[in-house]
């Protein structure tokens, strides 16, 4: 009898509790990003308390205080992504080099093309990070253990020296026995070698389900300079095409704005953005009070580039008609906006009128008081007392 993938998962992870939570694809992406070490590219700005709780529960091993014993542990991670798995819902099973395994389900599983795009973006994010220190060669040795459990004909690359991915699809000729062997051996090697294991099993119905514009949510991607030199700055790029594009085309794809783009912009924003898409995404399209424009061009090009292009918000006033129109005149209220995202009401004119009026009034009052004091301190002239004499003696 041939083993099905659902039977393999249930038998392999029999210690997992039956009551598994169900999370959204956005929350699942945040959990995967935390486990794979690329959480800096995924924002928690609009995450609720329930999402934070799931990330803490399934996000992987917590780093010890002051990094104690962290340098001696293996940073290697194996991500097994199974497409067209049997079952009605997507399931994620995790094992952090221990005998305890956990799992959770994903509601409204994205399609295979969306999954492929997410995996490519995770690889780009992992490759842009600085290399992990490995003084004991634990991560380096674990990569050989991971390569040994994968099928011989599969391509295995340790992205940035720690992240290994294997995608199993029936269209590629991967049988149930191959998946069962990989899962059993990987779970055993994870406990022995100390690397982390994440198994994502996507149902076959996901490819036929109704697609959303961006099922995995929005996140940032490293720029070309970041992938080459590993700096800290990132560009925002959240496209979701129907087919997986080439890696070289990622920077030219349009940005899909966040669903809550009308919410107020929070945090400290830079005055310049490296691209128009980054400006529109970070500023929520200038809070609908302006538009992103090229403020000034960067100097130089190629290897001689001295500065990059600067994109920012050009704010425009909001005109609101109030009251009733009388003849050709109409009552209107004009509101001016300012700030890096045009999110602040510009009251500089009112402020300076108030301050100027206060300063002038204070000057006039102080001048009047000073004038009265100076007049009272002056001596009377001697001419006034010249004609005054005492009473005459009789």
TrEMBL record:
> So which residues are the signal peptide here?
1-18
Mention any one GO cellular component term assigned to this protein in its UniProt record. Answer: endoplasmic reticulum
Using the UniProt annotation, give all residue ranges assigned to the region (Disordered).
207-248
- Any idea where the Vacuolar sorting protein Vps3844 N-terminal domain is? 21-125
Pfam family example for this protein? Vps3844_C
Does Signal appear among the keywords? yes
Span of domain Vacuolar sorting protein Vps3844 C-terminal: 272-386
Keyword line? Membrane, Signal, Transmembrane, Transmembrane helix
Where is the chain membrane-spanning? 351-373
According to UniProt, the name of this protein is Uncharacterized protein
Q: Taxonomic lineage of this organism? A: Eukaryota, Fungi, Dikarya, Ascomycota, Pezizomycotina
């Amino acid at each position: 009898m041939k083993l099905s993938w659902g039977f393999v998962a249930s038998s392999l992870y029999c210690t997992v509790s039956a009551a598994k939570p169900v999370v959204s694809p956005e929350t699942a992406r945040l959990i995967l990003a935390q486990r794979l070490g690329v959480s800096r590219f995924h924002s928690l700005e609009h995450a609720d308390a329930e999402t934070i709780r799931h990330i803490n529960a399934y996000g992987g091993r917590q780093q010890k205080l002051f990094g104690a014993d962290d340098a001696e542990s293996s940073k290697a991670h194996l991500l097994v992504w199974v497409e067209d798995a049997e079952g009605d819902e997507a399931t994620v099973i995790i094992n952090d080099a221990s005998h305890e395994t956990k799992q959770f389900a994903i509601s409204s599983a994205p399609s295979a093309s969306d999954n492929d795009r997410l995996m490519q973006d995770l690889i780009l994010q992992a490759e842009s990070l600085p290399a992990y220190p490995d003084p004991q060669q634990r991560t380096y040795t674990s990569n050989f253990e991971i390569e040994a459990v994968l099928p011989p004909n599969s391509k295995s690359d340790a992205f940035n020296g720690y992240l290994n991915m294997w995608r199993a699809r029936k269209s590629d000729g991967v049988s149930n026995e191959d998946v069962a062997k990989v899962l059993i051996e990987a779970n055993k090697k994870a406990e022995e070698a100390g690397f982390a294991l994440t198994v994502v099993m996507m149902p076959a119905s996901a490819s036929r389900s109704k697609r959303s514009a961006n099922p995995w949510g929005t996140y940032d991607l490293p720029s070309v300079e970041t992938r080459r030199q590993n700096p800290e700055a990132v560009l925002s790029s959240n496209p979701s095409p129907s087919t997986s594009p080439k890696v070289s085309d990622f920077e030219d794809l349009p940005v899909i704005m966040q669903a809550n783009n009308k919410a107020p912009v929070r945090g400290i924003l830079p005055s310049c953005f490296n691209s128009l898409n980054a400006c529109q995404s970070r500023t929520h399209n200038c809070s609908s009070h302006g538009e992103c424009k090229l403020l000034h061009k960067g100097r130089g090009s190629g290897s001689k580039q001295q500065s990059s292009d600067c994109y920012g918000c050009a704010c425009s006033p909001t005109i609101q008609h109030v009251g009733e129109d009388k003849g050709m005149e109409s009552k209107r209220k004009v509101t001016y906006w300012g700030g890096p995202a045009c999110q602040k009401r510009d009251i500089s004119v009112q402020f300076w009128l108030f301050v100027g009026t206060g300063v002038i009034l204070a000057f006039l009052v102080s001048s009047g008081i000073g004038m009265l004091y100076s007049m009272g301190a002056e001596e009377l002239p001697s001419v006034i007392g010249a004609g005054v004499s005492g009473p005459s003696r009789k």
